[in-house]
Write a structure and sequence with these properties.
The chain is mainly alpha-helical. It is built from eight helices and no strands. It has a domain at 63-173: Cytochrome c-like domain (Cytochrome Bc1 Complex, Chain D, domain 2), CATH 1.10.760. The protein starts with a helix and ends in an 11-residue tail after the last helix.
Length: 184
Amino acid sequence: MDSFELNKIAGGFLATLLFMMGLGILSDAIFKSKHPVVAGYALPTAEAGASASAPAAAAAPAEPIAVRLASADPKKGEATAKACTACHSFDKGGANKVGPALYGVVERGKGAVAGFNYSAGVKERAGKGEKWDYESLDAFIANPKAYIAGTAMSYAGLADPAKRADVVAYLRNQADTPAPLPAK
């Protein structure tokens, strides 16, 4: 095969590409596509009748932790806290895991477990001398990232106030001498 034949083959290939490109430009001019004003799709929302009670329950503020602790069940709290054992130990002298050991956490200073590398947010609170009282534990368990910005805890939170009170009551019992219950 000589160079004249190779030039004819390359010319035919390039002519075909040029024809296809021209056809694409011409079709774009004829068939103008509409671009959406807002990118993405609108997601369906829950029906108003089906979830009317859910927003009302979420909007209603929870009773103070002192009131909820009066009827809290530490046994139920222990069952709820089983999920926490993946990252925390509850035993006296228990080792730190991904999270610090929680034995004696009630009324303990924030960031006070020796040998655990706390996040910057917890260290800041510890520097202010804050302690884990009932209200702060309740708020932290409800939404850790909202309570302490920058916390490394990946837990999303426990929305049910009664279950949080049960967990706090369980944490209260995990001490040599449980902290006194708060006044109502």
